[in-house]
Amino acid sequence: MARIWKEAFDSVKHGGLSDPLPDAVEPMRRNWTAPTLVSHDVVCVSVCSFTFRFYSRQQLQRLLIYYEQKIVPSSRQPESVWSLRGGDHTEAERWFERLPLFLREEPKRLKVVKAFRDALCMFPDQSKGWLL
């Protein structure tokens, strides 16, 4: 059974970002600017002896799409695409492609997908906008 919880972002505890895309960086940037005005929560999902940290709903949705695929297509991308993420050949893989392979085994993959679907409700609905 998966354990899902939400905790306040702490730069010391949560360290650096694994995902440099703007949807993961922007909430943390707002929190660094005014931590008492704009709080930022991190959703943690512990499943199959592994704990995932999500900084945004879009980040969780990207990983859910990846784990919903039973057979993962090739992850090769042209240099023009991965050079936008840093330009170094060591950064050609996306962060979720470097996760442990035991999570891709069929029984565990199904548990991970179920846990991610349950974790989606932990994020506020983006369509409603900001509550004032």
Brief summary:
By secondary structure, the protein is an alpha+beta fold. The chain is 35% helix and 14% strand.
So how many helices? 5
What is the helix fraction of residues, given as a range? 25-40%
- Give the H and E element order: EHHEEHHH
- Low-confidence runs: 127-132
> Largest sheet, described in full?
3 strands, antiparallel
Across the major sheet, the strand order is 1-2-3
Describe the structure.
There is one protein chain. With 132 residues, the chain is an alpha+beta fold. The protein is 35% helix and 14% strand. It has five helices and three strands. Strands 1-2-3 form a three-stranded antiparallel β-sheet, covered by helices on one side. Strand 2 and strand 3 form a beta hairpin. Helix 3 packs antiparallel against helix 5. The chain is globular and about 45 Å long. The chain starts with a strand and ends in a 13-residue tail after the last helix. The C terminus is likely disordered.
Topology:
Elements (H helix, E strand, L loop, with lengths): L2 E6 L2 H4 L7 H12 L7 E7 L2 E5 L2 H12 L10 H4 L23 H14 L13
Antiparallel strand pairs: 1-2, 2-3
Salient structural properties:
single chain; 132 residues; alpha+beta; 14% strand; globular
